[in-house]
């Protein structure tokens, strides 16, 4: 496990604007792979277009496909890393803070006392990279579910247990 | 007590009548069409009879196969002709029992009983139809069961949670708000609606089968005749005709508004009893809804463009249960503020007063929004300036100026305040809407920023409210953080399970609800 669980001891005052914990480094790779998957259809489309207009000879061969390839490469190299950098979380004694978004920033805090149920999901890609998504469900209409992707598998489970234990303690 | 019971036998009659309604139109269609030549009337009667017979049969079988059981712990309904379904709702999960009587069942003295559980997606359990008395008895029974549970807990739990609102045990059925005929007329005047024209249009299409109204030539000739007659009358008469037309539109719109209001809100009564708020309304379809006080998550006080000028407001409760498709329950659709105040107080809320410290939205957000809105019109002005007549460009430019002015002025009316236990927000220039929520009953806080907002240093604060939304746009970032910190301070102190339950019931909800849910995760 690369990232240590950032569970601050109970009873300390909570600083909402404090240091964020980074997600699992593999999450950046997963994001990159997903971007590649997104870029492939565009590349295929560009190649098909090349083949179609080759006969017409309007543009020098390789211009369209080349441009698309360069743009796609730039996106694949740059965007996932900055998306990864933009994300983070902060877990404290009684609340979880999730920060995400490159252009449209969103900074959500869910107190454990309001969590209805907790999910830990893993897609095939996540399984390969050993990461998981932790989702907290609340009763509010806005933020009915707050997802925190890119946690290490173990860490996600530990966090779920931690939050769960907290709820049970409050309830009894 | 815990034996299977059937719904009222008369429900079969209602099913049969419904099948007559669905069978009669195909029958008429056959009678007037060319199918079958001379024997078509016989076929029509045959089709009609067959559909009635089948409908009655299905409705009878459905009635035979539908049973409900009032058990010790829950109410169970089993139904289904081919595929059986059995649903059980524990008493402690039933939030309220509502009775709804449509015109036809009402004639037979029957009601539809709905058990509201707060589950999303209209998945509530209902029994169609029971006799009036049985429905009332069932509702009483559910209430008693819940009260017994509460009483049992009151004995075991030594002290009630002081943070939760103490239900003021008012006398049974104290009327908080009612609307008489005169009030309904005035309400109807503001509910201006031209929906009647849509209905007329639909009716025309129906009539089309009998009379050939889409014969364009006929209309064209008629219009030409009328047009030439009007043209000979001169400009004054033409203007008078236009004004008369507008007056007719206004009168029809107001009349249909009044009719709709009467149908929906006839006999509107809001009463406060020990169990909560009870609202009855409706002329033909009479509904009777009970809302427990602790289920009220927030308040919305809205108004309209015109009615605001005359000092009328409407009050709705935000709760998890849905009311005829809309997210909140209307409890005083058309009232003066001094009539709304006691209802607000009865729900355990406080209206903002002189001591409320209002905070305004960011001035930068105001500027950005004004520029953004004006920019649209200015961009629209460019093609107009190039292609249209010279003077026309003033119209979009004028609109841009209006947009800037409206935004600057509207800012004065956009404000929010953080009270000791509540949070207030008011928006709207011409028809201000206020939202009030209890800090304790919020579920999450989000600070959201777009690229522009990040650059200019403001944010939208989204508060997680059960059954509704609560967003405050354009809050300066520092204020947003302070707001979130203080709201979270309040929320994190109390667990969800103690929140929705009335004080005496807090322990039971905690034990039964959460540990069960958690075991499943």
**Between the first and last Cα atoms of chain B, what is the distance in angstroms?**
36 Å
Radius of gyration of chain A: 21 Å
Regions with little confidence, pLDDT below 50 for 5+ residues of chain B: 156-171, 501-521
Distance between the amino and carboxyl termini of chain A: 33 Å
Residue share in helix of chain B? 40-55%
What this model shows, in words?
The complex is a heterodimer of chains A (172) and B (521). Chain A has helices at residues 26-53, 63-86, 124-129, 153-171; strands at residues 88-91, 95-100, 105-111, 115-121, 131-138, 145-152. With 172 residues, chain A is α+β, with helices and mostly antiparallel strands. Chain A has 2 domains: 11-22 and 88-171, Pleckstrin-homology domain (PH domain)/Phosphotyrosine-binding domain (PTB) (PH-domain like, Roll), CATH 2.30.29; 28-83. The model of chain A is unreliable at 1-14 (pLDDT under 50). Chain B has helices spanning 10-32, 40-65, 103-107, 132-156, 181-190, 195-207, 216-231, 235-265, 305-309, 337-346, 363-387, 394-411, 451-456, 477-492, 506-520; strands at 4-6, 67-70, 74-79, 85-90, 96-101, 110-116, 125-131, 174-178, 269-273, 276-281, 286-291, 298-302, 313-323, 326-335, 358-360, 415-418, 422-427, 433-438, 442-449, 458-465, 468-476. Residues 156-171 and 501-521 of chain B have low confidence and may be disordered. Chain B folds into 4 domains: 4-150, PH-domain like; 195-263, no CATH class; 352-359 and 414-521, PH-domain like (Roll), CATH 2.30.29; 362-407. In chain B, α1 (10-32) packs antiparallel against α2 and α5 packs across α8. The chains are: A alpha+beta (172), B alpha+beta (521).
Layout of secondary structure:
The complex is a heterodimer of chains A (172) and B (521).
Chain A: H1 26-53, H2 63-86, E1 88-91, E2 95-100, E3 105-111, E4 115-121, H3 124-129, E5 131-138, E6 145-152, H4 153-171
Helix pairs in contact in A: 1-2
Chain B: E1 4-6, H1 10-32, H2 40-65, E2 67-70, E3 74-79, E4 85-90, E5 96-101, H3 103-107, E6 110-116, E7 125-131, H4 132-156, E8 174-178, H5 181-190, H6 195-207, H7 216-231, H8 235-265, E9 269-273, E10 276-281, E11 286-291, E12 298-302, H9 305-309, E13 313-323, E14 326-335, H10 337-346, E15 358-360, H11 363-387, H12 394-411, E16 415-418, E17 422-427, E18 433-438, E19 442-449, H13 451-456, E20 458-465, E21 468-476, H14 477-492, H15 506-520
Antiparallel strand pairs in B: 1-2, 2-3, 3-4, 5-6, 5-11, 6-7, 8-9, 9-10, 10-11, 12-13, 12-18, 13-14, 15-16, 16-17, 17-18, 19-20, 20-21
Helix pairs in contact in B: 1-2, 5-8, 11-12
């Amino acid at each position: 496990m690369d990232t240590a669980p950032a569970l601050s001891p109970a009873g300390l005052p909570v600083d909402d604007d404090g240091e964020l914990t980074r997600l699992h480094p593999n999450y950046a790779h997963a994001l990159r792979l997903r971007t590649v998957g997104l870029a492939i259809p565009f590349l295929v489309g560009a190649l098909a277009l090349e083949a179609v207009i080759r006969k017409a000879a309007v543009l020098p061969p390789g211009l369209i496909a080349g441009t698309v390839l360069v743009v796609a490469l730039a996106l694949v190299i740059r965007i996932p890393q900055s998306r990864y950098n933009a994300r983070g979380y902060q877990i404290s004694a009684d609340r979880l803070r999730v920060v995400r978004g490159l252009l449209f920033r969103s900074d959500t805090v869910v107190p454990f006392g309001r969590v209805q149920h907790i999910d830990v999901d893993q897609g095939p890609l996540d399984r390969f990279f050993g990461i998981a998504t932790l989702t907290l469900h609340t009763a509010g209409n806005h933020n009915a579910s707050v997802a925190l992707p890119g946690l290490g598998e173990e860490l996600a489970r530990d966090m779920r247990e931690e939050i769960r234990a907290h709820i049970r303690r409050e309830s009894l | 007590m815990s034996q299977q019971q059937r719904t009222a036998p008369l429900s079969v009659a209602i099913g049969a009548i419904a099948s007559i309604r669905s069978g009669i139109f195909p029958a008429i269609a056959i009678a007037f069409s060319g199918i079958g030549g001379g024997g078509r009337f016989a076929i029509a009667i045959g089709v009609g009879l067959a559909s009635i017979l089948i409908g009655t049969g299905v409705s009878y079988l459905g009635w035979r196969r539908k049973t409900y059981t009032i058990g010790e712990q829950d109410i169970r309904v089993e139904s289904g002709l081919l595929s059986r379904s059995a649903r059980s709702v524990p008493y402690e999960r039933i939030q309220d029992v509502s009775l709804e009587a449509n015109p036809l069942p009402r004639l037979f003295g029957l009601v539809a009983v709905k058990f509201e559980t707060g589950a999303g997606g209209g998945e509530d359990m209902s029994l169609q139809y029971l006799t009036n008395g049985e429905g009332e008895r069932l509702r009483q029974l559910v209430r008693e069961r819940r009260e017994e549970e509460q009483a049992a807990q009151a004995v075991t739990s030594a002290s009630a949670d002081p943070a939760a609102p103490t239900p003021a045990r008012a006398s049974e059925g104290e009327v908080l708000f009612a609307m008489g005929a005169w009030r309904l007329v005035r309400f109807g005047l503001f509910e201006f609606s031209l929906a009647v024209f849509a209905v007329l249009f639909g009716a025309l299409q129906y009539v089309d089968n009998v009379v050939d109204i889409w014969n364009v030539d006929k209309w064209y000739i008629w219009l030409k005749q009328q047009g030439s007659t009007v043209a000979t009358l001169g400009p004054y008469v033409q203007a008078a005709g236009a004004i008369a037309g507008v007056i007719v539109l206004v009168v029809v719109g107001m009349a249909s508004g009044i009719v709709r209001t009467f149908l929906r809100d006839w006999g509107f009564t809001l009463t406060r009893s020990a169990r909560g708020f009870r609202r009855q309304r409706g002329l033909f379809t009479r509904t009777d809804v009970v809302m427990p006080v602790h289920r009220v998550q927030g308040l919305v006080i809205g108004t309209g463009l015109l009615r605001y000028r005359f000092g009328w407001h409407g009050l709705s409760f935000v709760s998890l249960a849905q009311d005829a498709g809309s997210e909140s329950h209307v409890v005083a659709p058309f009232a003066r503020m001094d009539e709304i105040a006691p209802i607000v107080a009865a729900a355990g809320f406080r209206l903002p007063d002189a001591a409320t410290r209002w905070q305004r939205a960011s001035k930068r957000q105001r500027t950005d929004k004004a520029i953004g809105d004006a920019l649209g019109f200015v961009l629209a002005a460019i093609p107009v300036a190039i292609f249209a007549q010279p003077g026309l460009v003033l119209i979009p430019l004028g609109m841009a100026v209006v947009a800037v002015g409206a935004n600057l002025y509207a800012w004065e009316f956009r404000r929010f305040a953080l009270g000791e236990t509540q949070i207030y927000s008011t928006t709207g220039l011409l028809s201000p809407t206020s939202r009030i929520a209890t800090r304790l009953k919020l579920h999450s806080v989000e600070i959201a920023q777009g690229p522009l907002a990040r650059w200019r240093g403001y944010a939208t604060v989204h508060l997680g409210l059960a059954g509704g939304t609560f967003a405050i746009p354009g809050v300066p970032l520092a204020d947003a953080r302070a707001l979130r910190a203080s709201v979270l301070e309040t929320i994190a102190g109390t667990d969800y399970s103690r929140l929705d339950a009335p004080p005496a019931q807090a322990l039971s909800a905690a034990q039964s609800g959460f540990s069960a849910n958690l075991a499943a995760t």
